Amino acid sequence: MNIFEESKKFIPGGVNSPVRAYGSVGGDPVIVKSAKGSKIYSEDGKEYIDYVGSWGPMITGHADDDIISEVKRAADMGTSFGAPTKAELDIAKMICDMVPSVEMVRLVSSGTEALMSAIRLARAYTKRDKIIKFEGCYHGHSDSLLVKSGSGLLTFNQPSSPGVPEDFAKHTLIAQFNDIESVKSLIADNKGQIACLLVEPVAGNMGLVLPKEGFLADLRKACDSDGIVLLFDEVITGFRIAKGGSQAYYDVMPDITTMGKIIGGGLPVGAFGGKREIMQMMSPVGPVYQAGTLSGNPLATAAGIAMLKKLSQPDFYKNLKAKSDILYDAMAENCKKLGLNYAYNRVESMACLFFTEGKVESFQDAMKSDTKKYAKFFHEMLNRGINLAPSQFEAMFVSSAHSEEDLEKTAKAHYESLKAL
Ligand code: PMP
């Protein structure tokens, strides 16, 4: 049986999330049977060194023994109660301890939910309707946020979605990443009307675009100038570029932070948190309604706690960076040796090689990439046993489970793949 062909008969496009289909690179996706450490194994018996890491969560590698054993232990005690547990307190304390601006947190089951609820909260707190987001940033698939979005929407060249009523979309104003003037002019034109400015502090859904020096601090100032809630969407960057996320890394404090991916250790979790004064507006203490049958689910919290404990070990991030440097320095060297001047953005364990020359510092820069070339490169890498995201507009992730041998093998495959283009 061809699993993917058969899946397409029962699941739209054969996938439960569009980015999994090889929409922009062509071909049929690898059907994963299992994964362990740095590797994924396909149904047809192939092995790949993986840099997708389930799109970010698997920072300690796949099927991490410490996490799996906690999930098993939790499963034996019951998979869902719909009532408060001690584990929820434990993970909430850990998150508040690790993420500098977060004083209170609520758990949900996905990043989308976290953003959707956080926006409602910001709107209720400010008693305003409008929000500002950046073109090319992705914040999940809720109605207000599917406007000029990144991730799969860019991959499929469809930055907004039908089915979102104009009445919702009109409250979403679009600014340009790394362009503070675009933010200031939206604020000036909509004085006293903007509830929230949301940003991926490091943009990871249009490839990888780093904030320019001072950009995040300027956003903080711009928000303060008009009573706007600053929301950092750290669903990718949280616990990834530093234990405290981008806010710790760049030392700029948002009012609300959304999280996901890594805090679930591979199980479905999202969270939003922030200043006590704002979070106290959530039901049942305050009037802002938000709920979830499986929120704070015991398996997910067990995985999350095990994960956050690992990340709290001394030198975790230092060691992860050292590993990342082995590969990422080699990739830079490969480009140099081959005389290629492609834009190449990196931060800690995240990186993205853009198939365009010059710097990529904006959405427009990222859009100059030759996605056909990326598609060829992707397949060259895959044929050499390296699994990258099937889209130019995603970052790659090194995990602590990648061995030096993995990284060296990947660097060699990278050289050969670029050469083959
Ligand atoms: N925010 C960001 C920055 C993301 O990258 C994503 C998912 N890639 C989301 C929100 C949505 O998270 P989820 O897919 O868990 O709904």
UniProtKB/TrEMBL annotation:
InterPro entries the UniProt entry points to: 4pyrrol_synth_GluAld_NH2Trfase, Aminotrans_3, Aminotrans_3_PPA_site, PyrdxlP-dep_Trfase, PyrdxlP-dep_Trfase_major, PyrdxlP-dep_Trfase_small
GO MF entries: glutamate-1-semialdehyde 2,1-aminomutase activity; pyridoxal phosphate binding; transaminase activity
Subunit structure: Homodimer.
Protein name: Glutamate-1-semialdehyde 2,1-aminomutase
Family to which the UniProt record says this protein belongs: Belongs to the class-III pyridoxal-phosphate-dependent aminotransferase family. HemL subfamily.
GO biological process terms on file: protoporphyrinogen IX biosynthetic process
Major place of residence: cytoplasm
Cellular component per GO, a single term: cytoplasm
Enzyme class: isomerase
List of residues that carry N6-(pyridoxal phosphate)lysine: K261
Catalytic activity line of the entry: (S)-4-amino-5-oxopentanoate = 5-aminolevulinate
Cofactor names: pyridoxal 5'-phosphate
EC number(s) stated in the UniProt entry for this protein: 5.4.3.8
Keywords: Cytoplasm, Isomerase, Porphyrin biosynthesis, Pyridoxal phosphate
Pathway(s) it belongs to: Porphyrin-containing compound metabolism; protoporphyrin-IX biosynthesis; 5-aminolevulinate from L-glutamyl-tRNA(Glu): step 2/2
Organism: Seleniivibrio woodruffii
Cellular compartments annotated: Cytoplasm
Pfam family, one: Aminotran_3
